[in-house]
From TrEMBL:
Protein name in UniProt: Indole-3-acetic acid-amido synthetase GH3.6
Family statement drawn from the similarity comment of this UniProt entry: Belongs to the IAA-amido conjugating enzyme family.
Sequence ranges assigned to domain GH3 middle in this UniProt record: 353-437
GO molecular function, one term: indole-3-acetic acid amido synthetase activity
Matches recorded under InterPro entries: GH3 (IPR004993), GH3_C (IPR055378), GH3_M (IPR055377)
Keywords: Ligase
The species this protein was found in: Sphenostylis stenocarpa
Species classification: Eukaryota, Viridiplantae, Streptophyta, Embryophyta, Tracheophyta
């Protein structure tokens, strides 16, 4: 981190950013009009727009008349051409600098989102909005550091030679992150080398070590998602005595072999027996309640996303942090970065994101059952449904919408797959609660498994039961986050016609087959990130699913319309299922996973 330049003025800097927010939120519609016009004029020559009969027009009416509202599958042939090396302007007139690999999947593989060089500036702008906002609520943060756990993930190259990697890996490897100028708000305890270390054990170890040895300076802690932060605490539970020894002696555990990491850490690490005593005392207590505030006593908040599926981690975070504020700063995706939370100290259940109208052109599809939002197979919208899309300024308070974006990098009227609810307004800009990701039933980390994938995996698994004349008569699933890492649980009620007992290894094979059938993000979580534990099948007593139905009906469900839920979340239902478990089996090993798309394997 370079020293502060003499003319650095934090107050002025913050004011400028807050003014920017005021300005763009007051002039939402003008800004959106300009953004669409810029995108369409920059890309007037691209094949996709010409294909849809747009010949340089940049007005909203013509755009909306001609351009279909699409999902990833609609542009997959175009994406594949780019990935295979076609450099003609297909979606965007500027060169696609890389593909950002989304945690959303298509055909079991990560979706590839095109991005252009200048998008990095837009993403950096969104990052730069967060701290001036938080500083209005939590003063003095510039006097301390942030202990943020940041990781890169593996990357691959498409057959046409374009790098494909997650958006954060791209950001951490960019000069925007590595050569960032002095800014007290990006003063992290982790040296860049520890973030950029490709070995996840060494990266986590060295980042925690640097965080521990600067513990008094840490004013805020965080990770992108709650699941990642909890993984760090779990790592600390397993490795604290090694870390403590390093703090005591001022040396680094020999398992850290990356020389650039060792050198960077050695610039910070000094023998500190007093701190080591504190770490030892606190970590060896039987309860880890409040461990964050005990080890990092000046921490004012935990910066992690706890909206959407991450809300399942709130109680665990509250426990470890002794109820420190959980701050969700931003809402973003590989397609585009969208918005920030302007009320960062609000309760997690009340978090809303203000979409920043300079990021892309936003449209909103009202959510109701007839427009495909709740269908499992996305389909094209008909003309009438297309006309239901509304502008950012026209959304209605309390209404839910599916987000549709048009980006500078060449996605036009693209359905992101997120459902948002209007919670309020900042000037003329709506603020949205994140409601859910469409169709996702199971998620532990960044994996998103939908019902169709689960059903397909089940179909593959039950073939192991056929030789025993057995089948699964009912099933449901549960994302169990009481274990660290969390894991998928399937509850099976069996129908047994044969007399041969089914050996445990058959159910273990079923577990593994399900894992092998799930998408690549799930398998990466199991194999590479170790952020998901082995899948578990719990066999329940006969009649359990009838009891589940009785319970749902007692709560008001209609007998005629009752369908077994393919995923359960409600605690009493999970308890009912758990109380009737007769056998449990875990996946005996990790499923197969390799970086990149399966079609590229021969090219890399
Ligand atoms: P990815 O494309 O892998 O970066 O994932 C982006 C998706 O993560 C979004 O479309 C959302 O579904 C989810 N996501 C991102 N930010 C948030 C947030 N603040 N709260 C809830 N979900 C989020």
């Amino acid at each position: 981190m370079p020293e502060a330049p003499r003319d650095y003025n934090l107050v002025e800097q913050n004011e400028k950013i807050l003014e920017f927010i005021e300005d763009v939120t007051a002039n939402v519609d003008q800004v959106q009009k300009r953004v669409l016009s810029e995108i369409l004029s920059n890309n007037a020559n691209v094949e996709y727009l010409k294909r849809h009969c747009l010949h340089g027009q940049t007005d909203r009416e013509t755009f909306k008349k001609h351009l279909p509202v699409i999902t990833y599958e609609d542009i997959q042939p175009d994406i594949n051409r780019i990935a295979n090396g076609d450099t003609s302007p297909i979606l965007c007139s500027k060169p696609i600098s890389e593909f950002l690999t989304s945690s959303g999947t298509s055909g079991g593989e990560r979706k590839l989102m095109p991005t252009i060089e200048e998008d990095q500036g837009r993403r950096s702008l969104l990052y730069s909005l967060q701290m001036p906002v938080i500083s209005m609520f939590v003063p003095g943060l510039e006097k301390g550091k942030g202990m943020y756990l940041m990781f890169i993930k593996s990357e691959a190259t498409t057959p046409g030679g374009i790098v494909a990697r997650p958006v954060l890996t791209s950001y951490y490897k960019s000069s925007y992150f590595q050569d960032r100028p002095y800014d007290p708000y990006t003063n992290y305890t982790s040296p860049n080398e520890t973030v950029l270390c490709p070995d996840s054990y060494q990266s986590m170890y060295s980042q925690l070590l640097c965080g521990l040895c600067q513990n008094k300076e840490v004013f805020r802690v965080g990770a992108v998602f709650a699941s990642g932060f909890i993984r760090a605490i779990r790592f600390l539970e397993k490795n604290w005595s090694l870390l403590c020894n390093d703090v005591r002696t001022g040396t680094i555990n020999p398992q850290i072999t990356d020389t650039s990491v060792r050198e960077a850490v050695m610039k910070i690490l000094k023998p500190d027996p007093k701190l080591a005593d504190l770490i030892q005392t606190e970590c060896s207590k039987s309860s880890w309640q409040g461990i964050i505030t005990r080890l990092w006593p000046n921490t004012k908040y935990v910066d992690v996303i706890v909206t959407g599926t991450m809300s399942q981690y709130i109680p665990t975070l509250d426990y470890y942090s002794n109820g420190l504020p959980l701050v969700c700063t931003m809402y973003a995706s590989s397609e585009c970065y969208f918005g920030v939370n302007l009320n960062p100290l609000c309760k997690p259940s009340e978090v809303s994101y203000t979409l920043i109208p300079t990021m892309c052109y936003f449209e909103f599809l009202p959510v109701n059952r007839s427009n495909g939002v709740n269908d499992h197979t996305p389909r094209s919208l008909n003309e009438k449904e297309k006309q239901e899309l509304v502008e950012l300024v026209d959304v209605k308070l309390g209404q839910e919408y599916e987000l549709v974006v048009t980006t500078y990098a060449g996605l036009y009227r693209y359905r992101v797959g997120d459902v948002l609810r209007v919670a309020g307004f900042k000037n003329k800009a709506p603020q949205f609660n994140f409601v859910c990701r469409k169709n996702v039933v199971l998620s532990i980390d960044s994996d998103k498994t939908d019902e169709v994938e689960l059903q397909n995996a089940m179909k593959n698994a039950v073939t192991h039961l056929v030789p025993f004349d057995a089948s699964v008569s009912e099933y449901t699933s549960y994302a169990d986050t009481t274990t660290i890492p969390g894991h998928y649980v399937l509850y099976w009620e069996l129908s047994l016609k044969g007399s041969t007992p089914i050996p445990p290894c058959v159910f273990e094979d079923c577990c593994l087959t399900i894992e092998e059938s799930l998408n690549s993000v799930y398998r990466q979580g199991r194999v590479s990130d170790k952020s998901i534990g082995p899948l578990e099948i719990k066999i329940v007593e006969q009649g359990t699913f009838d009891k589940l139905m009785d319970y749902a009906i007692s709560l008001g469900a209609s007998i005629n319309q009752y369908k077994t839920p393919r995923c359960v979340k409600f605690a009493p239902v999970v308890e009912l299922l758990n109380s009737r478990v007769v056998e449990k089996y875990f996946s005996p090993k990790c499923p197969k996973w390799v970086p990149g798309h399966k079609q590229w394997i021969n090219h890399n």
